[in-house]
Design goal:
- By secondary structure, the protein is α/β, with parallel strands linked by helices.
- The chain contains 25 helices and nine strands.
- The protein has two domains: 13-349, no CATH class; 353-402 and 440-573, TIM Barrel (Alpha-Beta Barrel), CATH 3.20.20.190.
- The chain has helices spanning 2-6, 8-13, 15-47, 58-63, 65-97, 104-117, 126-137, 139-150, 153-161, 163-180, 184-192, 197-208, 212-247, 254-295, 315-337, 369-377, 404-407, 418-421, 442-449, 468-478, 492-501, 536-544, 557-566, 576-586, 590-601, and strands spanning 353-357, 382-389, 395-397, 454-459, 485-489, 506-511, 526-530, 548-552, 570-573.
- Strands 1-2-4-5-6-7-8-9 form an eight-stranded parallel β-barrel, surrounded by seven helices.
- The two termini are 47 Å apart.
- The mean pLDDT is 84.
Length: 603
Amino acid sequence: MIKQILGLELLKCNFKSILIFEICYKFIAALLFAPLVLVIVNFSLKLAGIKYLSNENISYFFTNPSTIIIICLFILCLILYSLFEVMALIGCFQASYYDKKISSLAIFRLGSFSAKKLFKEKNFLLIVISLLIYPIVNFIQLYGCFSNLKLLGIISNFINTNMPELLTCFLIIMVVSLFAMKLIYSLCYFCTENYNLKKSVKKGLRLISKNYIKTVFGLLLWNITIALAAGIILIIGVLLVFVTLKILGISETANIIALQAYRWIFISLVGLYMLFSTPISFAYICSFYYKERCKDGEIMDFYKEPEAAFKNPNIVKNVLLIMTVILIISNISIFIFEPNVFKPNIQFFHNTNVTAHRGDSINAPENTIAAFESAITHYADWIELDLKQTKDGVIVVMHDSNLKRTAGINKNIWEVTYDEIKNLDVGAWFSEEFVGEKIPTWDEVIKHVNGRAKINIELKPTGYEKDFEKEVIRIIKENNIEEQCVITSLKYNTLKRVKEIAPEIKTIFVSGVAYGNLADLKYADGFSIEQNFITKKLVNSIKNKEKDLYVWTVNNMKMIEKMIELGVDNIITDNPLKAKETIYKKYAPDTFVKLFTQTINKK
């Protein structure tokens, strides 16, 4: 009985076909909408005269007439996409009601049959009906999108600033949608009977008049129940991961692994919900639809096959195949030839990366293989290191020009050959655990890191080098890591020489202050600025020039949170694990983070 009320019997009959249909349909949608959304965003920014969307110009952007028009057109595309899916599923559930097994391709054909009817008489007004009922049918999805947008600083600020107006709009939309839900059975009639829209509306209004409350509020309650169940699974899953890590004795990185688990379990649950939310909702609606029609004696004793939408039965199959191939080729082409399409200039689309300063220098001696390995273990995206050149031209990894502090020998690096220093101990000064750590060569470090992290190379020429930049770049090219590194320097002329030798390698200008028109520097692809000089104005100035912004050296968690909020590209820190943990917390709701923190802190 419960299965019938919830529509589970309708789902069960053709579950395999529905699953294949949904996977294929969502896959095609992803191929279409993923690049389309980014192209639309970039195009909208260009029309609005904005190079980089941030807190300062987001209100202007969303109220710009061109943006409003583009958003409306995109919503129309979204409704058409959603409407075809609903039409196909309603046709499938009619077959399920009569225990008729159909294929996933047949579901596409049923959708095509109903979609073709849209272009007859005034049936296109069904698009308006679909738009009006969309907020209620997809209430959980919309709430989820809203909640996740609030986690993003730029959108959160916009929402908080315009809360009264947005709340008023939301209430109006929901009230209108609640009234529009009286037309939900009209959609069912349109897809299951050979009726035009006018007759479908008339029949639908009469049928739903007896059980409007049960249908609409039951649908909301059913979806909320599913969402709550998913939330419980999410929390239990993360806690199980954390407890397992504790049992295995993995305590240092347990927090960040658990937060990663949250992210992946959440993404998986969202993916499953997106896959099944529409079938679940309309199976529920159709179960009430058939129940009421049965009471009125409208149901036939046998299943009547709908007319074919096209004379050629293979046309739907061929169109789907051709469309999929074209979309796959288009996406690959865009990714290869226009990669910037996938990088919109929007503050919340930028993921903040973490750079381990001189490696994981709080847990291992700086600029050593041990420090770099520890940085990778502690989830650093990048490793920052310093390069020097010995008397005989070997490039080594070392911060100071003098060997006294780390190796205990009062000699400058340019005064000694590599053979003289290769066996020096640069770990004992840090702790006994690292006795025997050696000064690594630049080539050794690249081979050890082996693509597990990107490398931030700081060059500090002393004036005693010979072809310093050329030699560093030669080793970069020999190891094919041009795309996995950046070269940074306090000396602008050093970056100029790098660009003259290898223009394809990214250069970052390091500065302890941020005055003047930094963003206009020709030979710098980005800037690494001391944390106290980072402001919204500076971030926007650099982003408007489509350049990267690194910030150093950030060890305070509050400051790390601030830098993430401001939208910097890269945080250079001595504590990569804590920084990465702070970033992962950004993707989790505050309530979950508090619950998780309280749980893991219990003895």
